[in-house]
TrEMBL record, chain A:
GO MF terms, alphabetically ordered: hydrolase activity
Organism: Anaerobacillus isosaccharinicus
Protein name: CidA/LrgA family protein
Keyword Transmembrane: yes
Chief localization: membrane
UniProt xrefs under InterPro entries: LrgA/CidA
Superkingdom of origin organism: Bacteria
Keyword Heme among UniProt keywords: no
Keywords of the record: Cell membrane, Hydrolase, Membrane, Transmembrane, Transmembrane helix
Automatic annotation (TrEMBL), chain B:
Record protein name field: LrgB family protein
Major subcellular site: membrane
Membrane topology, as annotated: Multi-pass membrane protein
PANTHER family found in the cross-reference section: PLASTIDAL GLYCOLATE_GLYCERATE TRANSLOCATOR 1, CHLOROPLASTIC, PUTATIVE SEROTONIN TRANSPORTER
Organism encoding this protein: Anaerobacillus isosaccharinicus
Length: 130, 228
């Protein structure tokens, strides 16, 4: 019971930050979604110690654990595009899957190669100093 | 009537999600990822009983109410993993920039090759960005908002279905790179998938999603006009 109450209060706080994010994006005409700005604000609040991790931790881990759930109702909206996908289905599937595969491979391979190179350089340095 | 349909829709959605968690754990495969599996079940049920998406809209609005706060919450794993993320910030940013540009070029080239219309080409070029940003960029380059939203959602599903096995196949095993790739290409849905792999993966995916949105807003209006 007490845990549920804590989660509800924490959810309300996260919701406030989200609303503030959307308000600021609109007011300042920023090229960002409001929720992403809300995320940046919460990170800054945590870094500066204005907000303690304990204030948001329970609700955050609950929401992140079930993050996929929130995309299901949105994905159901694809049923409105049945005719388009029936008509151009194969082409669209090829474009979306192909470009996603290219992007995933490039992002992963580039970052992994660079990250490992950096680790390798550090190893060399420690070997030289030894 | 609408109240009854909405309550029923919510029950079906929650049921499908819980079922997908059990099935996905027991039979892990691209087709049992929660969003694909649940969405397929729900669409089949709605169509079978003659319901339209409009009947489902109220339930959708109620259930996605916490999506914004959930995105805000991604700051927490990011904060907890800040040291390791800081250590890899260089490779991460280069990875996101290369990934963003390659997926835009990949999409427009394939669309051109398959002779899809310019409106579809423009709409599909921004498919890797979270919906609210994608719609704005799409408007600038001559895409259609509804079409764009559909492509974004489809990319979220296909990227999360394809991504993990593709990276296993190509030996991309660095947790940072796996989260980065899923967040950059499949936005929020990729982030949800990355979070199931681990806290660091989820954290970096959330950041990648935000940065990819910014880079796409800069790159798409420059790249896409060359192909229209």
């Amino acid at each position: 019971m007490k845990k549920t109450l804590i989660i509800v209060i924490q959810l309300f706080f996260l919701w406030l930050l989200n609303e503030l994010g959307y308000f600021l994006v609109k007011a300042l005409n920023l090229p960002l979604p409001g929720n992403v700005l809300g995320m940046v604000m919460l990170f800054i609040l945590l870094m500066t110690g204005v907000v303690s991790l304990k204030w948001v931790e329970e609700a955050s881990s609950f929401l992140i654990k079930h993050l996929a759930f929130f995309f299901i109702p949105i994905a159901v909206g694809l049923m409105n595009f049945g005719p388009l996908f029936l008509q151009n289905g194969i082409s669209l599937l090829l474009v979306i899957a192909g470009s996603a595969a290219i992007g995933i491979y490039i992002t992963g391979a580039v970052s992994q190669t660079l990250a490992e190179k950096k680790v390798g350089a550090n190893h060399d340095r420690s070997r030289n100093s030894a | 009537m609408i109240v009854l349909v909405t309550l029923l829709s919510i029950a079906i959605t929650v049921g499908a999600y819980l079922l997908s968690r059990v099935v996905g754990k027991r039979y892990p495969s691209p087709f049992t990822t929660p969003v694909f599996f649940s969405t397929a079940i729900i669409i089949i049920i709605l169509l079978t009983f003659g319901f339209t998406f409009e009947d489902y809209t109220m339930a959708k609005d109620i259930m996605t109410f916490l999506l914004g706060p959930a995105t805000v919450a991604l700051a927490v794993p990011f904060y907890k993993n800040r040291e390791i993320i800081k250590k890899h910030s260089g490779p991460a940013i280069v990875g996101i920039v290369f990934g963003t540009i390659s997926t835009i070029i990949g999409a427009v080239l394939l669309a051109k090759l398959l002779t899809l219309s310019n409106e579809i080409l423009a709409s599909v070029s921004v498919k890797s960005v979270t919906v609210p940003v994608a719609i704005e960029i799409s408007n600038i380059i001559g895409g259609d908002p509804a079409l764009t939203a559909a492509f974004v959602v489809a990319t979220g599903i296909i990227g999360t279905m394809l991504g993990p096995s593709l990276m296993n196949l190509t030996n991309i095993d660095h947790p940072l790179s796996r989260g980065l790739a899923l967040g950059t290409i499949s936005h929020g849905q990729g982030t949800a998938q990355a979070a199931t792999e681990g806290e660091l993966q989820g954290a970096i995916a959330g950041v990648a999603m935000g940065l990819a949105a910014i880079f796409t807003a800069i790159a798409a209006p420059i790249i896409v006009p060359f192909f229209i």
